[in-house]
Amino acid sequence: MTTLTILPSGTTTEFTAGTSLLQAILDAGVKLVSKCGGEAKCGACHLFVTEGRKGISKMTPAENARLDSLIGIGSKSRLACQVTLLGTEAVTVELLGALSG
Ligand code: FES
């Protein structure tokens, strides 16, 4: 088990390797909208991965294309529905609220 920290609330949760980042956040009881059902189409699950980037899966072309169309993206931007938690190190994410698509 590895730790996921969710900002700005500071909620922490444990996850097993192979868990979707979106699912881990929802399992922790934190609200994160997923309008497209995890298909990389809505952008509503956009967040920043602030720590532990070696502990998450690489970006797919579909995720990259969707992020390019969103407002407020940065070098730490990811779509939670497209990220798999690898379990190799602890991960910290920052939810963006109104910035998300
Ligand atoms: S839930 Fe729609 S892009 Fe992630």
Distinctive features:
Ubiquitin-like (UB roll); alpha+beta; five-stranded mixed β-sheet; binds FE2/S2 (inorganic) cluster; 101 residues
Q: What can you tell me about this protein's structure?
A:
This protein is of the alpha+beta class. The chain has one domain: Beta-grasp domain (Ubiquitin-like (UB roll)). The chain has helices spanning 21-27, 61-68, and strands at 2-7, 11-15, 46-51, 77-79, 91-95. The protein has a five-stranded mixed sheet with strand order 2-1-5-3-4. The longest helix has 8 residues, at 61-68. It is globular. The protein binds FE2/S2 (inorganic) cluster. Keywords: 2Fe-2S, Iron, Iron-sulfur, Metal-binding. Belongs to the adrenodoxin/putidaredoxin family. This is 2Fe-2S ferredoxin-type domain-containing protein.
Calculate Rg over CA atoms.
12 Å
Elements, N to C (H/E): EEHEHEE
Q: Specify the CATH homologous superfamily.
A: Beta-grasp domain
* Average pLDDT: 93
Task: Give the distance, in angstroms, between the N- and C-terminal Cα atoms.
Answer: 31 Å
- Spans with pLDDT under 50 lasting ≥5 residues? none
Short description:
This protein has helices at 21-27, 61-68, and strands at 2-7, 11-15, 46-51, 77-79, 91-95. The chain is α+β, with helices and mostly antiparallel strands and 101 residues long. The chain has one domain: Beta-grasp domain (Ubiquitin-like (UB roll), Roll), CATH 3.10.20.
